[in-house]
Design brief:
By secondary structure, this protein is of the alpha+beta class. It folds into two domains: 5-130 and 294-302, Roll (Diaminopimelate Epimerase, Chain A, domain 1); 134-289, Diaminopimelate Epimerase, Chain A, domain 1. The protein is 18% helix and 39% strand. The protein has an 18-stranded mixed beta sheet that branches. α3 packs antiparallel against α5. The two termini are 16 Å apart.
């Protein structure tokens, strides 16, 4: 990398600075080696860092490479929402009236994104998940999960609302708990996580309850991803997409659209709101959408990286 790289940071899934999930975006990234991008993401040490490249397919808008501090992701929600918001603000593509549709290429596949302009409000950006929900193998026993989360087995729900793993491109283990007070007590035990979940199909844990704080919300959630280099995530769009599969499979609706608003990040002091929709046809999920707003926080330049010896 011979020249400095210009970047922006945003807070995503919020309408105010210092809430939501932080994101770094390089809107005109040159061609970089994967290890260079990984080193940059580790340096920023945010949940995700995005490198925007020209689209591989000229019919699409841009190609995104998304990295946590520890690894590359095939798809992620808050980076997609935040990057679309930034590119629209930078006029990187023409905006068409009140609603503009674009396609962002990610390693999991093309992601359909809509940007809705709203008078006097931040634009609302919504993505369609690149894959439909798929379910993983049976999770570990509730007593083992409780040990991972530093909870009592009775704090976890069972029966119809038992833990289950699901993915819309990134797998998560969904663990329902009794209420908001239980959710607030969750602390991941690193040793128990390594023993129980490090090699499970879905090593990231999404703990939630149906006891939200705000009117209009359906769920309160926290996400922990030690294997991704994320101690706790303030807002997780890919998990919000996947939980639509968990929730829809427990709903009697056979035709129509289910909607949920999810609170996340409140325990971290970074409140986030994620809007989720699932289209149901003949009792099956046909499409999942996740949306929210974002706030631009800063911009700057990353100095050239030193060449690696050897």
């Amino acid at each position: 990398m011979a020249e400095g790289l210009h970047f922006h940071t945003l807070d995503v899934f919020t309408d105010r600075p210092f809430g939501g999930n932080q994101l770094a975006v390089f809107p005109e990234a040159p061609e970089l080696a994967k290890d260079e991008m990984q080193r940059i993401a580790a340096e920023f040490n945010l949940s995700e860092t995005v490198f925007v490249r020209p689209a591989r397919d000229p019919r699409n808008t841009r190609h995104l490479r998304i990295f946590t501090p520890a690894e590359e992701l095939p798809f992620a929600g808050h980076p997609t929402i935040g990057t679309a918001h930034l590119l629209a603000a930078l006029r990187a593509f023409p905006l068409k009236g009140d609603r503009t549709n674009i396609v962002l290429e990610e390693e999991a596949g093309p992601v359909q994104v809509s940007i809705t302009q709203r008078k006097g409000k931040l634009p609302f950006v919504e993505l369609a998940a690149p894959a439909l929900p798929t379910f993983g193998p049976p999770p570990p026993h509730a007593s083992e999960l409780a040990a991972v989360l530093n909870l009592e087995p009775g704090d976890l729900l069972d029966g119809t609302d038992a833990p289950q793993a699901c993915s819309c491109g990134v797998p998560y283990l969904f663990v329902p708990v009794r209420d908001r007070s239980v959710l607030a007590r969750v602390q991941v035990d690193g040793g128990a996580w390594r023993a129980v979940l490090a090699h499970y199909w879905a090593p990231a844990v999404y703990v939630f309850c149906r006891d939200p704080e705000l009117k209009g919300s359906a769920l309160r959630a926290r996400m922990f991803g030690p294997g991704l280099g994320i101690v706790e995530d303030p807002a997780t769009g890919s998990a919000a997409a996947a939980i639509a599969g968990y929730l829809a499979s427990r709903d009697s609706t056979r035709e129509g659209t289910l909607r949920w608003r999810i609170e996340q990040g409140f325990e971290m002091g970074r409140p986030s709101l994620l809007d989720v929709e699932a289209d149901i046809r003949q009792g099956k999920v046909r499409q999942v959408r996740v949306g929210g707003t974002a706030v631009r926080i800063s911009d700057g330049e990353l100095r050239p990286l030193p060449k690696q010896k050897g």
